[in-house]
TrEMBL record:
InterPro entries: 4Fe4S_Fe-S-bd, 4Fe4S_Fe_S_CS, 7Fe_ferredoxin. Ferredoxins are iron-sulfur proteins that transfer electrons in a wide variety of metabolic reactions. Keywords: 4Fe-4S, Electron transport, Iron, Iron-sulfur, Metal-binding, Transport. This is Ferredoxin. It comes from the Bacteria. One of its GO terms (molecular function) is 4 iron, 4 sulfur cluster binding. Residues 1-30, 37-67 form the 4Fe-4S ferredoxin-type domain. Pfam families: Fer4_7. The lineage of its organism: Bacteria, Bacillati, Cyanobacteriota, Cyanophyceae, Nostocales. Its cofactor is [4Fe-4S] cluster.
């Protein structure tokens, strides 16, 4: 099951982007409610490896399940 970046918790650190082995993490347009850049995970590409959670320094920014209601996904 893919992981989810919680849009309103993400602070745009982007350690997850470089660590992802399948390049499924992308930058989101604009800023989130915290006024920071944010990222989103392409659920169709994610292989559920968990590396993103391991490298993210922001507690609660990534959850280990597919929760589309927590992640804004640009069309």
């Amino acid at each position: 099951m893919p992981h989810t970046i919680v849009t309103d918790v993400c602070e745009g650190v982007a350690d997850c982007v470089d660590a992802c082995p399948v390049a499924c993490i992308h930058d989101g347009p604009g800023k989130n409610v915290k006024g920071t850049d944010w990222y989103w995970i392409d659920f169709a590409t994610c292989i559920d490896c968990g590396i993103c959670i391991q490298v993210c320094p922001v507690e609660g920014a990534i959850v280990p399940e597919e929760r589309p209601e927590l992640q804004k996904t640009p069309l």
